[in-house]
Amino acid sequence: MIVKEKRLEKGWSQAQLAEFCGLSLRTIQRIEKGKQPTMESLKALASVFESTTAEIGYSVEVDETSLSKEEALVFDKVKKEKRFVTDLIAFLVVVPLILLSNYLFAPDQIWGGLTALAWSIWLVIDAQKTFDISTILSKSWEKRRLEKRLGRKTK
Length: 155
Prior knowledge:
Blueprint (H helix, E strand, L loop, with lengths): L1 H9 L3 H8 L3 H8 L6 H11 L19 H37 L5 H20 L8 H12 L5
Helix pairs in contact: 2-3, 5-6
């Protein structure tokens, strides 16, 4: 309904909005009647209205309560991967600062290096739990990555 309100604020007809965002008139009509738009449609509408998808009434967040068992398992894996990447970024930012402060304030001690080593070991263990490291060296991993990047199955 927010799409309709925003369209009317601009003084546009449904046909004009459809033309501006490159969607069909029928798609605009469906969205204004409450049908969930695709991500592409959301992005097009947000661009035309110069706003975010949340501002036009649609959140791009995943509703965990509506996921199937399989989807929930994959979603959990994605959350773990996101957490790992966040931890890795923190490591890459904080460890150089720790090593620098160790060098500047106590160059005769190795506490910065020990901290970096301990954090590195923890990251490696976390990576092994988050990603199936054993399959990375296999041919099946190469095939899965190829299919993922191509967006289709290979022979």
